[in-house]
Amino acid sequence: MRLVLSLIGILSAGAAFGQQAADAVAPEAAGVGAFEGMSPAVMAALDTKAAGSPVVAQDWMVAAANPWAVEAGAAVLKRGGTAADALVAVQAVLGLVEPQSSGLGGGAFLVWYDAASGAVTTLDGRETAPLAATPRLFQDADGAPLKFFDAVVGGRSVGTPGTPALLAEVHARWGSEDWAGLLAPAIDLAEAGFVVSPRLAGLVADDAQRLSSSEATASYFLPGGDAVQAGHVLVNQSYADTLRLMAEGGAEAFYTGDLARDIVGTVQGAANAGVLSEVDLAIYQVKERAAVCAPYRGHEVCGMGPPSSGAVAVGQILGLLEGHDLSAGPQDIEVRRLIGDASRLAFADRGRYLADSDYVPVPVTGLLAPAYLAERARLLAGDDALPEVTPGKPAFDHALNWADDMAIELPSTSHISIVDAQGNVASMTTTIENGFGSRLMVGGFLLNNELTDFSFASHVDGVPIANRVEPGKRPRSSMAPTIVLKDGKPVLAVGSPGGSRIIGYVLGAIVAHLDWGMDVQAAVSAPHAVNRFGTYDLEEGTAAADLAEGLGALGFEVGTQALTSGLHMIAIGDDLRGGADPRREGIALGE
Ligand code: DON
Fold this sequence. Notes:
By secondary structure, the chain is α+β, with helices and mostly antiparallel strands. Helix content is 36%, strand content 16%. Strands 1-22-21-17-16-9-8 form a seven-stranded antiparallel beta sheet. The longest helix has 21 residues, at 333-353. It starts with a helix and ends with a strand. The relative contact order is 0.19. The model is unreliable at 1-16 and 18-22 (pLDDT under 50). It binds 6-diazenyl-5-OXO-L-norleucine. The site of 6-diazenyl-5-OXO-L-norleucine (DON) has 15 residues, from loops.
């Protein structure tokens, strides 16, 4: 049945780029089969995704990385709850069923469109470095940067979690339902047990050695010493207890008291101990920041500014591309040359200038200024790949003399897009950084390793790096939760996991939709070709891999590999259309 549907979908998909849609990534078969027996609406959404078609609805929609989480959010939206309410319900379930990617022990960024006021704003729930952290946190006794996983696993990498405070803030500002009620589905599922998905089981098996480094983590994910299997029903009583505590005591119950003491004890008592303290937890604050918006083909593309590099980088790349006609499509080498070199130019600036603007001056306006982008865009005038790419010199009031950053990022993270019946839009990317974060577990959730998003080196030849570790500072992110507006009204909500490839994934989905006319499902399924200022990464087994020869001939260094985005995209027009990334287990659901 699904095979037939997917063939029909392939035959009918993608008006403008039917051939590319046919080459798009197919849903993971095992991922689709894992949710057999869920509600008819979920099963229909899985079938629609397998067919390569967008889910269509009239009033509300939610798209996220796991059907159980989407179902919890959909129940809220169906009974008239706001996108803020639904976000709480979705995140609470994601922390249970997709624990490797996001949860209470991590951080998140939200971009919010408020239907009543027509305003877009952002909330920063990023983790902070402990007050006792120094720029040498990730260096050995001689000042040499640690190896990545030597830094990740254990207490050292754990920043003060921001997600619980973010959820409470979102709910206080824009929620309409009872807070405790929004946590109830996750509590019930944690106590009844959830069926381990093939994706989670596979990731546990791959990471078994690191997961066994801590007792609490090992006993949950490797019961009796063996990795949990797909189909196994996993109960998480500690998570239910934590959510109950928060249902009664709000986020306060997370940041103070017994749970806070347990978190600190776990971090400080771990091998590779960290310096997180109860004070760090008690003073944690969510920050509201102005959305960073950039124009593109009559739209405003709005997202998360510093400490994320997401909106600045996506906005710069779009600004560099604006003067070029990309309509020749995704298989055109000239189009890919432009996107690749525009990305390299943006990543050069990102590496030098982007960091937590509460700690270092960041030239956001200068980096997005039309005159600056026009000057940088002149570099794209040739026919070949740029032989060398260096950061530019954006206008700024401060002296800027930073060395280039050297942070490393690897997979986990999740993106949630929601539109409610009142017209509010939420676009939130949420993470514990690496898959399974620091591998430390407390209260039924994993603690992040977000501090490894800081640069491990603090200086180069005596010149400081903007994204070096400093007490209380937020590590630079690439997360790019985005809302695209046209004439002041939201038309798209999109975002993805993928470390620093997030920027290329989000950019690619926006270009696929706006320039290539792909519907949201085709846009999120489209093969990836992303450049982060190094190799031009092409998605293996897709049409993007066919670009290798042509791009190589222009002088790009080219590599082919799996590129596991997790794009969740909703288009808002006369109706709502949702797309869920076929590379992960999620769905879009609406009515
Ligand atoms: O904030 C960031 O940019 C990273 N910590 C996100 C990590 C991530 O997306 C891993 N993805 N697959």
